[in-house]
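Researcher: Let's walk through a ligand-bound prediction step by step. First, I give you the protein sequence. Second, the SMILES string for LLH4SW3U. Third, you return the three-dimensional complex as structure tokens. Ready?
Model: Ready.
Researcher: Here are steps one and two:
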Amino acid sequence: MYSRTMLKVRTLSNNLKMYGSTSSNFVNVSVNDKSGVAIVTMQREPVNSLNLELITQLKTALSDLERNKCRGMILTSASKSVFSAGLDIMEMYKPNQERVRNFWLSLQDLWMTLYGCSYPSVAAINGHSPAGGCLLSMSCEYRIMLPNFTIGLNETKLGIIAPSWFVATMKNTIGFRKAEMALTLGFLFTTEEALKVGLIDEVASSKEDAIAKADKFIGQFAKIPPQPRTISKLMLRSKDIETLRKTKEQDLQAFLQVVNDPKTQKGLELYLESLKQRKA
Ligand SMILES: CCCCC/C=C\CCC/C=C/CC(=O)SCCNC(=O)CCNC(=O)[C@H](O)C(C)(C)COP(=O)(O)OP(=O)(O)OC[C@H]1O[C@@H](n2cnc3c(N)ncnc32)[C@H](O)[C@@H]1OP(=O)(O)O
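Model: Step three, the predicted complex:
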């Protein structure tokens, strides 16, 4: 039913080529011919960490879906155990200044595109979803997660602060009090805990079940006129999108200041080592 790559994801744009990147395909888009619902699959092994290329390709895919008036979008992962490990730490460790700037601006763009898309959006969370992975999930309208994984904004545990738009997205998803607790603790919720707190909406037994549930959620909108649907969604979401749009440069400068701080660089080095040692 879902035909692979019916909507072609454009490869890297010219401005990325100057960094010598190869145009690997980190995003697959397949569209159900009957329902018009698209499945957007992140496929950057091993953990879908969000580097500049994955972020750019996701943004392109979502914008293409908008232009093609898709009926709904399901965001998921090709991995069996990780939805997304969040931002690629290698983009922030000893960064090339022009690339890290582009990285952050592209992340801002991706968030504004996903959070404000007109079509219904569902995250089929088929693996762990910390930090930036949680942001992507929360930016969708509905979340379905598989058991025995974790999700949350764990930034404070890493000694860093989630940007204000990450915080706003969490507050809008689970409410002020629960967001305050979760953010200050850097709490990673298990699937069951996430369901209880309202961070996810349903638990699925498998990826196929998650996709079926997502299709069912999106199917409800078949009877709702699209324009009032979109306007209602944007009445709730546009304030935070506009806030970031107006403060993009300020937000970028704050990020660059943190990233370029030698203490952050030392922290990143230790964190990368700890990730590697967990395996040993
Ligand atoms: C973090 C400091 C940022 C400094 C900048 C300052 C402020 C502004 C930015 C603030 C916002 C930040 C949001 C973020 O998203 S930060 C990223 C936070 N992410 C995490 O903490 C997740 C870390 N990863 C994990 O916990 C696990 O990898 C896992 C997702 C649970 C999956 O576990 P598992 O399946 O066991 O896989 P491995 O751990 O063995 O990983 C395989 C491989 O991938 C590397 N890796 C994992 N996560 C990342 C990542 N986020 N970025 C880059 N690389 C990652 C890991 O090191 C392994 O590599 P090797 O195979 O080479 O050992």
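Researcher: And what stands out?
Model: Confidence is low (pLDDT under 50) at residues 4-23. The chain has one domain: 8-279.
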